[in-house]
């Protein structure tokens, strides 16, 4: 068993080196494929993060109250709202609370607000819906109430973001699928060349009574090595590029989207796992496919 | 050792072999003769289970080949050594490696290989060339290596498919002597050939095939009408 394993590994490396050019060529093409794949992977992961943070941030309905509404009246409204279908949580924010929050958001520039004579911020009730889709229904019910100055909610915008991210994800998945198939074809062609170069040897092996798996073994390992090599190279390149990108754009993106990017470590770990898994599958499948016809008899 | 019972193999509407019935006993040396396309190759391929019979049963070394599952074909082939007209040695391996290769495939331990291979090389009389490559050898020497490879795992049956077809008469005779030696050790040999002089000289059982049928099965000589 161990002897057979040793033979298989040794043969695989011998074949790889004997077909240096072809092996290198297929490592390059699969690496190129995986780079594109990695690009989509990062895009999808980040778009996902963006979508879920958009959902988190904009899943609330802000109900601004008229100044004439007293705190007692507001508390009554709050109780009523809490009974609406689809309301997960709701709380009251007084004019003073609103001022405080604005001050904390403005940070260093908060002193500018001190100059105001009247507090311009309205009191409000902030509602969190159980689900984005019910926001419309909640707003419909709110519109029948008195003492409301304005209602702000983002259902449409968030809905749009989500549907765009959906398209991006589906598109990326289809592309990834195509890339994987192309990679399998590339590997299977490389292996086919090795197989043809060794047709006589395989023929003799069959006559002497070697089992199909014994014959297939070295080619299988050869394909897997090509796959792993490509995946490590491309994971390295994609990881490095992503690291650079995060370093230089993270700050700006934080201001724009306030969600930032998926951390480098998370991307890297997943990238390596996914790439190596795909690399092994591509290599294995490619070589098995290329040998199928050969081992028929 | 080898038994064909009512075996028929068709290629579309062309006859490969038809209703073949033959028994070859253990230790026999049999010549298979006949014109090109008579069915000799089909006969050999059926034995090796390279192709499937349409009808009938084939038994080789107590194993029924016709009902054998594909998984067991490699096991079956280990019972049959085979030598070809064109030697089929691996050009990038030395003589020793070419023979050892057949043992490595069966996961033989290094130690056993190192003992068995020189034994076979001396049996076929080529010990001195163990470290040379096939292209450095004469045709006769290459065929010796091929024979050593075919018998290194001690198969009970040896098929020789026109083993002297590419050799001059003297060399051919040497090869025949080696085959006779192997036969004397108890190996059953089936040899396909067109070489009338060899068949006549050896005086063995001759099975003549024509148009897929056995037309003659007798001790002795090659006849022109075969």
Blueprint (SSEs and pairs):
The complex is a heterodimer of chains A (297) and B (226).
Chain A: H1 2-18, H2 20-57, E1 60-65, H3 71-82, E2 87-93, H4 95-106, H5 111-114, E3 124-129, H6 135-142, E4 148-152, H7 155-197, H8 199-208, H9 212-257, H10 264-292
Antiparallel strand pairs in A: 1-3, 1-4, 2-3
Helix pairs in contact in A: 1-9, 2-7, 2-9, 2-10, 7-9, 7-10, 9-10
Chain B: E1 2-11, E2 14-24, E3 29-33, H1 40-48, E4 55-60, E5 63-64, H2 73-77, E6 80-83, H3 95-104, H4 110-123, H5 139-151, E7 157-161, H6 169-184, E8 188-192, H7 196-202, E9 205-210, E10 213-219
Parallel strand pairs in B: 3-8, 3-9, 6-7, 7-8
Antiparallel strand pairs in B: 1-2, 1-4, 4-5, 9-10
Helix pairs in contact in B: 3-4, 3-5, 4-5, 5-6
Note the main sheet of chain B.
Answer: 6 strands, mixed
Backbone shape of chain A: elongated
Catalogue the unreliable spans of chain A.
none
Uncertain spans of chain B: none
Structural class of chain A: alpha+beta
Q: Approximately how much beta-strand content do the residues of chain A carry?
A: 5-15%
Overall morphology of chain B? globular
The protein's oligomeric status is: heterodimer
Q: Tally of extended strands of chain B?
A: 10
- The run of helices and strands of chain B is EEEHEEHEHHHEHEHEE
Largest sheet of chain A: 4 strands, antiparallel
Q: Strand order across the biggest sheet of chain B? A: 6-7-8-3-9-10
Biggest interface pair, counts:
A-B, 17 and 21 residues
User: Helix proportion of residues of chain A, in percent?
Assistant: over 70%
Mean pLDDT of chain B: 91
As for the number of domains of chain A, it is 2
The helix-strand sequence of chain A is HHEHEHHEHEHHHH
User: Using only CA atoms, what is the Rg of chain A?
Assistant: 30 Å
Strand order of the largest sheet of chain A: 2-3-1-4
């Amino acid at each position: 068993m161990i002897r057979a394993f040793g033979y298989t590994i040794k043969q695989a490396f011998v074949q790889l080196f004997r077909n240096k050019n072809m092996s290198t060529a297929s490592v390059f093409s699969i690496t190129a494929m995986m780079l594109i794949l990695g690009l989509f992977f990062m895009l999808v992961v980040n778009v996902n993060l963006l979508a879920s943070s958009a959902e988190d941030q904009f899943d609330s309905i802000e109900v601004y109250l008229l100044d004439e509404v007293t705190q007692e009246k507001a508390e009554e409204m709050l109780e009523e709202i809490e009974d609406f279908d689809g309301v997960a949580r709701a709380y009251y924010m007084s004019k003073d609370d609103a001022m405080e929050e604005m001050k904390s958001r403005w940070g260093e520039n908060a002193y500018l607000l001190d100059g105001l004579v009247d507090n311009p911020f309205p009191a409000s009730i902030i509602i969190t819906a159980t689900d984005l889709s019910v926001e419309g229904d909640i707003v419909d019910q709110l519109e029948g109430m008195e003492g409301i100055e304005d209602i702000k909610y983002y259902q449409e915008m968030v809905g749009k973001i989500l549907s765009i991210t959906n398209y991006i994800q589906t598109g990326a998945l289809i592309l990834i699928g195509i890339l994987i198939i192309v990679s399998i074809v590339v590997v299977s062609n490389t292996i086919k060349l090795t197989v043809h170069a060794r047709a006589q040897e395989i023929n003799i092996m069959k006559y002497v009574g070697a089992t199909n798996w014994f014959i297939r073994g070295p080619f299988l390992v050869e394909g897997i090595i090509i796959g792993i090599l490509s995946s490590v190279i491309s994971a390295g390149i994609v990881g490095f590029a992503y690291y650079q990108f995060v370093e230089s754009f993270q700050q700006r993106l934080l201001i724009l989207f306030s969600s930032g990017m998926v951390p480098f470590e998370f991307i890297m770990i997943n990238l390596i796992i996914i790439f190596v898994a795909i690399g092994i599958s591509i290599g294995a499948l490619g070589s098995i496919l290329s040998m199928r016809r050969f081992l028929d008899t | 050792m080898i038994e064909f019972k009512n075996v028929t193999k068709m290629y579309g509407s062309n006859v490969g072999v038809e209703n073949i019935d033959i028994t070859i006993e253990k230790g026999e040396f049999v010549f298979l003769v006949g014109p090109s396309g008579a069915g000799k190759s089909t006969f050999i391929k059926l034995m090796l289970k390279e192709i499937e019979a349409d009808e009938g049963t084939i038994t080789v070394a107590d194993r029924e080949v016709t009902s054998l599952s594909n998984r067991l074909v490699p096991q079956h082939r280990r019972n049959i050594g085979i030598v070809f007209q064109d030697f089929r040695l691996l050009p990038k391996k030395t003589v020793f490696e070419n023979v050892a290769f057949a043992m490595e495939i069966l996961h033989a331990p290094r130690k056993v290989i190192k003992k068995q291979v020189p034994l076979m090389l001396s049996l076929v009389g080529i010990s001195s060339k163990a470290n040379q490559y096939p292209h450095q050898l004469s045709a006769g020497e290459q065929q010796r290596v091929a024979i050593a490879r075919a018998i290194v795992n001690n198969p009970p049956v040896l098929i020789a498919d026109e083993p002297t077809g590419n050799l001059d008469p003297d060399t051919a005779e040497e090869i025949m002597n080696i085959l006779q030696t192997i036969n004397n050790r108890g190996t059953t040999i089936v040899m396909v050939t067109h070489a009338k002089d060899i068949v006549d000289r050896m005086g063995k059982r001759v099975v003549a095939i024509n148009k897929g049928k056995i037309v003659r099965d007798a001790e002795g000589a090659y006849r022109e009408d075969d």
